[in-house]
Amino acid sequence: MSIRNALLAAALTCAATSAAAIPVQWTEASGGNGHWYDVIYTGERITQGEAIIDAEARSYLGLDGYLATITSAEEMAFINANLDRSRYPYISGTDAAVEGTWVFNSGPEAGTVMSYFNWNPGEPNNSGGREDILHTWSNGLWNDHITGDIIDSYIIEYSQVAPVPLPASAAMLIVAVAGRGVARRRKG
Questions:
Q1: Which terminus, N or C, of the chain has the lesser number of Cβ atoms within 10 Å?
Q2: By residue range, what is the domain housing residue 135?
Q3: What's the burial of 90, exposed, middle or buried (CB within 10 Å: 0-12/13-18/19+)?
Q4: How far apart are CA 87 and CA 80, in angstroms?
Q5: Contacts with 38 (C-beta within 8 Å, 6 or more apart), sequence order
Q6: Does residue 91 sit within a domain?
């Protein structure tokens, strides 16, 4: 196969498996956070971990993509009103480290304990002792689910992901080392 045909086949596969609409923005003027949201259909069943990797490889208008980190009822209401969740897409959240303690596992909030939940009645239930990932039902309510390749979509959120700040001690060390270098140059 020629390089041109291989590239064309890859582009067609990407278009077929990422049949996403144009992302919608939750504008600050409407009380939102200014972020953009979309549902990505992968065309094959993937794990939540694979969805995280795929989302973080995407960008929109120069903004970073990540599995949606839903932090409020208002944000969930916006998503429910504007995105198709008919395939039960993944969203950011896991309690794999400590059962019952849900943390974001993607985006700028990664590692942060979640404080907002939109559970379906009876959830989370950790059925079978192995439900550690988060997704939404078509009604917009959440479900804990098994870790595995069972879902073919996820909600992506795009925003400017700020660089991780240095701890104060590391910043002070950098200043001290830089200062020491300046002092040595003055002596020499």
A1: C
A2: 18-187
A3: buried
A4: 13
A5: 20, 21, 22, 23, 24, 60, 83, 155, 156, 158
A6: yes
Q: What stretches of the chain show up as alpha helix (H) in DSSP?
A: 3-17, 48-56, 73-82, 168-187
pLDDT tens by residue, 23-43: 999 999 999 999 999 999 999
108 cis-preceded (ω within 30 degrees of 0):
no
Amino acid sitting at position 154: Y
Please give the Cα distance from 71 to 37 (Å, whole number). 14
CA distance 18 to 57: 13
Considering its fold, how many domains does the chain have in total? Answer: 1
pTM: 0.76
CATH of the domain at 124: 3.10.100.10
Element at 154 (helix H, strand E): strand 151-159
Give SS3 for 77.
helix
Mean pLDDT of 139-148: 92
Residue 13 included in any domain = no
Whether residue 7 lies inside any domain: the answer is no
For residue 9, being part of any structural domain is answered with: no
Residue whose entry in the numeric block shows the structure tokens 């990664």? 110
